Automatic annotation (TrEMBL):
Its cofactor is Mg(2+). This is dTDP-4-dehydrorhamnose reductase. GO terms for molecular function: dTDP-4-dehydrorhamnose reductase activity; hydrolase activity, hydrolyzing O-glycosyl compounds. One of its GO terms (biological process) is dTDP-rhamnose biosynthetic process. SUPFAM superfamilies: (Trans)glycosidases (SSF51445), NAD(P)-binding Rossmann-fold domains (SSF51735). It comes from Pseudoduganella armeniaca. PANTHER family: DTDP-4-DEHYDRORHAMNOSE REDUCTASE, METHIONINE ADENOSYLTRANSFERASE 2 SUBUNIT BETA. Catalyzes the reduction of dTDP-6-deoxy-L-lyxo-4-hexulose to yield dTDP-L-rhamnose. Belongs to the dTDP-4-dehydrorhamnose reductase family.
Length: 718
């Protein structure tokens, strides 16, 4: 909560309620509220938040321990963990006797695996004994906590969450798969009092060193969930293969077999969460809810994942299963789950809100939640595509298709595809247009790249014909006049392409309700500010090119305020051969001199990052002016030095010069670096340069490009 800012931002509760949700999993964490005992508890935060949620009509499902061990004085293998947690739970109930739903311990089986079996979380155990001790302690904590809570509120209900994982395998590893598939039920089985001498894992539990009486205690003290909470991720379904050499080494464990996500290995995808929910219903016959459904992916795949889970829950409900809810986890996104929060890398994956803006910014996921919660049909056209977990390019190994086990999987359901609305991309031959085409294809976003002959953006009739023919949901204006120096002698051509054309597009898009993304430049500024420019700074272009972009901004947003207008700067990327970074690196690596201005400060922009971010904003239906770059304010000469340092190339041949010595025809702002008051959405420059070097190496290996030898004669525009 410190990292995502929610701890001090009570206004988030209004945002959450606006999504149309009826309940929310909400923390009143033991280690934060009462780290030194219940008698010293600080209830101020919960006192403010829980009643506020109630007043907004949102029922809190109170969580007490979430992937942790509680306060420092205890742990998951401490015999006092359960009674101490119960004492705290009782105090919470006394404080908030009206709260109906509780999850005293989140995912006890999953937590026990990572803390007691894999050694990832505290107490870093790596044995079946520590795993089972942690599991039993957590489950006992749940039973005793609900007993204490119900002593205050007899109507209190237990929502018991855990990962709904299932394992598939080659026939040679069927015993392992069977064991894992039984183990996934253990927390719920214990709480339901189902573990005794007849349980499939009874011998395993006793051989691991757990006394029989510790297990049978649950048979005598059952506490079945009122709602079985099912958490489902792309990692929830696993494939085991005895042929470890077929897979990347990171997926092969100490036993020598591969353990990998099914989506990355199986030729026929699993049907997803639906059949797993049916297994839960058949096993327990208890009400169910999907209590976590999230994927760390591009925006369209986040939408597709949620929509798939939502539809599966409805299908199970229609078949007679008691499904109560689908939970979007988490609303504010999360930090560092790509390393299981074992390091502070600052890696952020957003959810219904994006926290990289001054205030949480609703994404397309928030709009989808509102539509689902009110019974409206989902409207985002990107839902028409398949998620990456169902696309051909998902494999990390030769796809498995011949195993008898795989053949026994339920067949993938095929549904008739409606005509797909594309994104139209103007500028077929340009750096930006080709990058959009490449990345749209990678992201399974339907698109059409149009030449000027197919859609002349400055010709209203041509634009109208293209919209009528292709019926796009969005247009990306990736073309335009980019020769900054030549524009001084070709003002009419520059203005036609950069100002008049975007206005024609904006008018047509307003009429047809098509979303438009178009680009502006840092050259709309004169550099007199002396610091990075933000979106609201006044424009004052020094040259014809900058004037054309400023004119486009003014006129486009006047006729169509819904347009997404992106200002950016100083492109570099791995796929074109004429950008400054590529030319500088090639010349200096070959021992040739290279001249660059040391008195013009810009914000370099990695084209793949720009395209990815623009597509997310387009899907989010953002509008107005956004500044997008990789953040750093550097001179052209410093940019060349920086990429050389990262590439291990000697930059002694770099000739740093004042811009006056480079004989530019167009006046250049001395400082045109971009910052943003709307959100810093792109990675750092050093991070981008590292990925650029990696991508260039991959392109060279594929033989897809040959970098020309000519040095840049001028600095191009956007």
């Amino acid at each position: 909560m410190d990292q995502n800012g929610h701890k001090t931002r009570i206004s988030d509760l209004d945002r959450f309620a606006a999504l149309g949700i009826k309940a929310i999993r909400y923390p009143v964490l033991w280690e934060l509220t009462a780290p030194d005992g219940v008698d010293k508890a600080d209830w101020s935060w919960a006192d403010e938040r829980l009643p506020a949620l109630r007043d907004l009509g949102v029922a809190p499902i109170v969580g007490l321990v979430h992937h942790g061990s509680g306060p420092r004085h205890t742990s998951l293998v401490d015999p006092e963990f359960a009674p101490q947690l119960a004492e705290y739970a009782g105090a919470v109930a006394q404080r908030f006797p009206w709260v109906e739903y509780y999850t005293p311990v989140n995912e006890p089986c999953t937590t026990a695996r990572f803390a007691g079996l894999y050694g990832v979380w505290y107490p870093h155990g790596k044995s079946d004994l520590v795993f089972l001790q942690a599991l039993i302690n957590q489950c006992k904590g749940v039973v005793l906590s609900m007993r204490a809570i119900r002593a205050v509120n007899p109507n209190a209900k237990l929502v018991q969450t855990d990962d709904l994982g299932k394992t598939y395998s080659t026939p040679e590893l069927s015993d392992w798969a069977d064991f894992y598939n039984e183990r996934r039920w253990l927390a719920w089985d214990l709480l339901c009092g189902r573990v005794d001498e007849d349980h499939t894992l009874w011998s395993y539990i006793l051989k691991s060193g757990i006394p029989a009486e510790d297990v049978l205690w649950f048979r005598d003290n059952p506490c079945p969930p009122d709602i079985v909470g099912l958490n489902y991720y792309i990692t929830s379904e696993r494939w085991l293969d005895h042929r470890g050499d077929r897979y990347p080494a990171r997926y092969v464990g100490e036993h020598g077999f591969a353990d990998i996500e099914t989506a990355r290995a199986l030729a026929t995808p699993t049907p997803g969460i639906g059949p797993l929910m049916e297994e839960v219903w058949e096993r327990y016959g208890l009400p169910m809810a999907v209590t976590e459904a999230h994927i760390d992916a591009n925006r369209e795949d986040q939408l597709r994942w949620l929509h798939e889970v939502w539809n599966a829950a409805h299908d199970v409900q229609k078949k007679g299963g008691d499904v109560r809810a689908v939970t979007v986890w988490s609303l504010l996104g999360s930090y560092d789950w790509n390393c299981l929060v074992t390091e502070c890398r600052g890696y952020y994956e957003n959810g219904a809100y994006d926290l990289r803006s001054p205030q949480p910014r609703p994404t397309a996921l928030a709009r989808l939640m509102q539509e689902l919660s009110t019974g409206r049909a989902p409207s985002n056209p990107v839902l028409q595509g398949l998620g990456w977990w169902r696309r051909p390019g998902r494999f990390l190994c030769p796809p498995v298709a011949t195993s008898a086990t795989v053949a026994a999987l339920p067949a993938e359901r095929h549904t008739a595809q409606r005509p797909v609305q594309p994104i139209l991309i103007s500028g077929a031959t340009g750096t930006l247009g080709s990058a959009f085409a490449r990345i749209c294809e990678e992201r399974n976003l339907a698109f059409r790249v149009l030449t000027r002959q197919e859609m002349d953006i400055a010709d209203p009739a041509s634009v109208e014909a293209a919209i009528e023919r292709y019926k796009p949901w969005a247009i990306v204006n990736a073309g335009g006049y980019v020769r900054v120096q030549d524009a001084e002698q070709d003002s009419a051509g520059c203005m036609r392409a950069n100002a008049h054309g975007p206005v024609v597009l904006a008018i047509a898009c307003a009429r047809h309700q098509v979303h438009l993304l178009t680009f502006s430049s840092d050259l709309v500024f004169d550099g007199s500010k002396g610091g990075p420019y933000v979106e609201s700074d006044p424009v004052a272009p020094l040259n014809v090119y900058g004037q054309s972009k400023a004119e486009a901004e003014r006129r486009v947003l006047a006729v169509n305020p819904e347009v997404l207008m992106v200002r950016t700067s100083a492109f570099f990327g791995p796929w074109d051969k004429h950008n400054f970074v590529t030319l500088a690196l090639q010349a200096l690596a070959a021992g040739r001199p290279f001249a660059a201005a040391d008195d013009l400060v810009v914000s370099p922009t990695y084209v793949p990052d720009l395209v990815q971010t623009c597509l997310d904003l387009l899907i989010d239906r953002e509008s107005g002016i956004w500044h997008l770059s990789n953040g750093a304010a550097v001179s052209w000469a410093e940019l060349a030095r920086r990429v050389c340092a990262l590439a291990g190339v000697d930059s002694a041949g770099l000739n740093s010069q004042p811009s006056a010595a480079l004989d530019f025809a167009a006046a250049q702002p001395r400082f045109s670096a971009l910052a943003s008051e709307r959100g810093n959405l792109m990675p750092t420059l050093d991070d981008a340069l590292q990925r650029y070097l990696q991508a260039v190496a991959e392109v060279r290996e594929e033989g897809d490009t040959h970098v020309g030898a000519a040095q840049a004669a001028h600095y191009g525009g956007v």
